[in-house]
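BUG-310 | component: ligand-complex export | severity: low

The export step for cytidine-5'-monophosphate jobs runs without errors, but we want the raw record kept on the ticket for reference. Input record follows.
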Amino acid sequence: MPRTVTVRAPGKVNLQLAVGARREDGYHPLVTVFQAVALYETVTATARDDERFTLTVSGASNLALDPDTVPLDESNLALRAARAVAERYGISEGIDLQILKGVPVAGGMAGGSADAAAAVVACAEAWDVGASREELHRICAELGADVPFCLHGHTAVGLGRGDELSPAMTHGQFHWVLATQAEGLSTPAVFAELDRSIAAGERTVAEPTIDDAVMSALMAGDAKALGAALSNDLQGPALALAPHLRDVLDAALDADALGAIVSGSGPTVAALARSRQHALAIAAHLTAEGVAGAVLTAAGPAPGATVLAG
Ligand code: C5P
């Protein structure tokens, strides 16, 4: 009997993203505050009798998604996740993976990382490998800097490459508007633009430190204070590569957003609203202005990778 397991994992926004100078391994030291939002990647894994690994991808209906933009070859992070679980536990059978995408592709919201986190959990369950949470975290960390956060969810401080996590205290829900773009931005290209601007003396780089204003706004559930404290060192580089994102930020602020920021390495712009109603009003304004691809709304924090059925 094939064992089928369905797992969903959330996308994220970065409430703070402070980036230090490039390390020798190519990564940059980060201090970041992640918040998972209620947009999910859903991965269904079905164990096979033979050794094949297969993958199909479709888009959730709320997403102006071209599934063709997702790589289906061995570079796909969900496939790499399945291979990593098989290798770690000496599994010789293959797996069928089906991904239903609800997080923008190449949008700076960790959609690919959420696929990987969901695939790690789904494969571990489908093959019944008996992995502990710590082992799942380790496999996720090897797959990418944002993957462990997609496993854990909620709100967390990320240090190192972003994969050394500690939970952050929060109060209540925050209401986000996510404005996507038809054209994605490559994360390595945005970090490379940061490196270029530092080398050219256009910006200085400091040791990244946690922003207490973000942490106290989260703890108080104070959306206004959080909106004022949002910061992202990758926003400048993302705007240099995609100057039209400035129009999205301006349009969100025109609609009275409490704050608006490029999410991670972009190009998705995250705007913070006072309430769900206000989020819908900002979304309507961004849609009317024609500055975004799709405009979504989602609350955060949201839970991490969760088994839905299996
Ligand atoms: O770990 P992940 O594959 O998601 O990272 C993608 C790319 O983003 C890396 O290859 C690197 O160029 C950049 N990155 C970085 N510093 C980090 C995280 C990511 O330079 N802390």
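Assignee comment: Attached the raw record above. Residues 4-168+302-309 form a domain with the Ribosomal Protein S5; domain 2 fold (CATH 3.30.230.10).
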